[in-house]
């Protein structure tokens, strides 16, 4: 799952460096991810993992880092753990 | 028992607003326009020594400006585009026939290069970008325009066509944040002198859809939009002024640069002119002759 998340960060977060160079807990907003980009990332995650973020998760904290995103995705798709 | 007349009913009965049959589109009386003109003169007076460059655009942007600005990403529900008849004689006859029969004739209209201005500062950014890097002191503009938002409502504070006066600052983050802080203080003093009760509160723009939910929260978390709310026509007070820090959103979108090549930051203070006029009528009465002498003195002194 982490590989897929990194791939989506690369495609949508609009960061100057590649996701491979970014730590799991690095703050993506500090690296330059804009609000619009985080929305694009959110929509791409929903499509890739076939999930829908509930309203209470649609905030900056949910998408702050690769590990935060992984936790959010896991909490919404128990099936993906077994897969 | 009849319900008490709303502020809109009262404004129409007093002749200050003229209904057209479409919610949110009204004519304005001379008295109403005079209040707006005097309020604007007051705003000009407050900002007189700042050296703002005055610009007035018609209430239109180009369709490509609307696309580039990202407005359709954030507010597709509010945008208005202008369409026109572009056919020949045959199409014209067909058009008239449809109108005659009461059928929908608008599907054959063709999009023009014109869209309605959604906010008074929108035409500024492409102009700024085309004029090259900003000077060290940044730039400051005074703009005013009718703006269109497609949100028909019987709330007189939610017109579809209304005027927005703005001061817009472009420069470094510090220059823009200082400008915003200064205008919040100026606005508090100005609105207090007009004897209107107010509060300054965190706010967000009406971003569309689920993605918009995230944009709204993000805007609030970062404190990018503050509004001055004043009681007008509803139980909740109405946002009559807003103080916006766009960060480098427009600078990056349009390529407005600082001298060192970094994207410029921008911000603005916006005055909702109809809302402010309505707030004055609501608070001080339907006849400005009877408004408190301090308020009259400030506006007409």
What does this structure look like?
- The complex is a heterodimer of chains A (83) and B (301).
- Chain A is mainly α and 83 residues long.
- Chain A has a single domain, classed as ACP-like (Non-ribosomal Peptide Synthetase Peptidyl Carrier Protein, Chain A, Orthogonal Bundle).
- In chain A, helix 1 packs antiparallel against helix 2 and helix 1 packs across helix 3.
- The longest helix of chain A has 15 residues.
- Chain A is globular and about 30 Å long.
- Chain B has 301 residues and is α+β, with helices and mostly antiparallel strands.
- Chain B is 38% helix and 24% strand.
- In chain B, the strands form 3 sheets. Chain B has a 7-stranded mixed beta sheet with strand order 3-7-8-12-11-10-9. In chain B, strands 4-6-5 form a 3-stranded antiparallel beta sheet. In chain B, strands 1-2 form a two-stranded antiparallel ribbon.
- In chain B, a hairpin with a 6-residue loop joins strand 1 and strand 2.
- The radius of gyration of chain B is 21 Å and the shape is globular.
- The model of chain B has no long low-confidence stretch (mean pLDDT 96).
- Chains A and B meet through helix 2 of A and helix 8 of B.
């Amino acid at each position: 799952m982490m590989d897929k998340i990194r791939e989506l960060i690369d495609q949508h977060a609009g960061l100057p460096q590649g996701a491979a160079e970014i730590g799991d807990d690095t703050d993506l907003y500090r690296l330059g991810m804009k609000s619009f980009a985080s929305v694009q990332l959110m929509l791409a995650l929903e499509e890739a993992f076939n999930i829908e973020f509930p309203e209470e998760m649609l905030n900056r904290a949910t998408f702050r880092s690769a590990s935060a995103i992984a936790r959010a995705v896991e909490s919404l798709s128990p099936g993906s753990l077994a897969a | 028992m009849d319900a008490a007349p709303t502020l809109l009913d009262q404004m129409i009965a007093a002749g200050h607003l003229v209904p057209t049959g479409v919610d949110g589109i009204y004519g304005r009386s001379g008295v109403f326009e005079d209040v707006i003109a005097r309020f604007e003169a007051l705003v000009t007076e407050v900002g007189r020594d700042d050296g703002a460059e005055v610009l007035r655009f018609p209430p239109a942007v180009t369709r490509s400006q609307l696309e580039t600005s990202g407005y359709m990403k954030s507010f597709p529900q509010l945008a208005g585009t202008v369409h026109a008849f572009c056919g020949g004689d045959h199409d014209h006859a067909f058009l008239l026939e449809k109108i005659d029969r009461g059928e929908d004739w608008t599907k054959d209209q063709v999009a023009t290069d014109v869209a309605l201005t959604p906010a008074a500062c929108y035409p500024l950014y492409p102009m700024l970008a085309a004029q090259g890097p900003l000077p060290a002191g940044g730039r400051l503009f005074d703009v005013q325009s009718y703006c269109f938002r497609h949100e028909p409502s019987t709330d007189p504070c939610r017109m579809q066509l209304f005027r927005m006066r703005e001061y817009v600052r472009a420069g470094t983050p510090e220059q823009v944040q200082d400008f915003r802080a200064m205008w919040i203080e100026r606005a508090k003093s100005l609105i207090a002198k007009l004897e209107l009760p107010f509060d300054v509160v965190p706010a967000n723009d009406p971003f569309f859809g689920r993605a918009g939910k995230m944009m709204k929260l993000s805007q609030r978390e970062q404190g990018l939009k503050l509004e001055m709310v004043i009681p007008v026509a509803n139980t909740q007070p109405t946002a009559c002024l807003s103080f916006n820090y766009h960060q480098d959103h427009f600078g990056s979108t349009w390529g407005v640069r600082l001298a060192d090549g970094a994207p410029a930051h921008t911000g603005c203070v916006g005055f909702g002119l109809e809302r402010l006029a309505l707030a004055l009528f609501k608070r001080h009465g339907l006849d400005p002759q009877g408004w408190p002498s301090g308020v009259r003195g400030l506006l007409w002194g």
